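Objective 1b. Sequence-to-structure analysis of Parvulin-like PPIase.
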Amino acid sequence: MHYKILTVFSIFSALTLIGESQAEKRKAPDSQTQETTQPPSKKQKGPTDQDGARIAIIVNKDVITFQDIQDRARLVLMTSGVENTPEMLKTVENQVKKSLIDEKIQLQAAKLQKVFISDAEVEHALKNIAKENNMTLEEMTQMFKDKGVNIQTLKDRLRAQISWARTIREAFGGVVQISDAEIQNKLKQLEDNENKEQFELMEISLSVDSPAKQSAIAQEAAKLHQQLQHGAHFHVMAQQFSESTTSASGGYMGWFAGGQMDPALEPHVVKLKPGEFTSPIRTSMGYKIILLKDMKKPNQAPIGQTQITYKQVLIPYHDNITEEDYQLVETRVAEMKEIKDHKKLEEKAQEYEYQCETSPQMPMKSLPAPLQKLFHQAPVGQCLQPIRTPEHLIVTMVCSKTAPTFKLPTTDDIRNMLEQEKFGKIAAREFNKIHSIAFIEDKT
């Protein structure tokens, strides 16, 4: 279905779920289909890339090659929505080194705890990602190949995340307990917040741990903000580059009522619409970029839960279009913008032999941020401002909006929520411990 044309290729948003869904499984190391948590770290030199296999970074006794860095940077560019230019590739190569180092440390910790991940589990995770993007694994693999991205770097990422999630759960599963009192306290907080305006937030956080680093971190925050402005997907950038514990979940912070946020953030957040993000904000700990994922008015369901259907008309449009065709497109778009009924829009598209697709009903929050922003206050039955892509102008119209009835989460939902919060804090604490004693030599 072509309505997916602007949706995010949701590799990284799916990653955090994989470790949780697989967390209770553990494989014995004697299976032929298994290998240790340590992914292959040495690459074969290609005939046109003599430097790719050179060691770039040493992490304890393991290495990260220049090829590893290039492969991961290409993956980030493909999934983030940032244009793949030589300059941007170089920028992202510098940015991905941290996540590659973190993955090596996580894999080493898992190996020490005798946590083993099978190739079959990684393959299963890949299939889930492909399914979320309406593809088969074979189709996704071919897409990687067509775009010049080595799918092994995604497999390495998956292996590290599954390994680390399982390591934490097996080590601390027995001590993470959620009491009935904790559940009731959380439920009361949610009930009290129902009378307030609430904001669902995501973050990219960069720490400033010494005055000497202030200028460099400010520049890095500005660079990330610029990439977001140029179309980079927030959750991908958060997962790759944020230094907060929320990075594992794509920067997801949760819901906050007015007065419950960091005072440095709230004045900026309340000015946002769903899908918008702030400029870098200086806080006591460093810099944050905040995205408003969703919001809700008092005693109403979140806006993102609104069920929506829409039509989109794909009009061929590229840089080499003739002046005559340009004028024709402009005239036809103006005609479409006068239409007030989605059926008549489809008829007009057929008249002009343009492709027209109708989306299935879906929650607003499942749409890409640009579409959420576009549809947020859009009335039903009105053509919206066209969206430009490399090959098309896309004219959209909201066909229906259905606001759901808001329900408080169940006690099981709250238990799972609190459990994930505790595991997240433990994972961050334990990782900081092992990272602080790791030997890391960057040769780049």
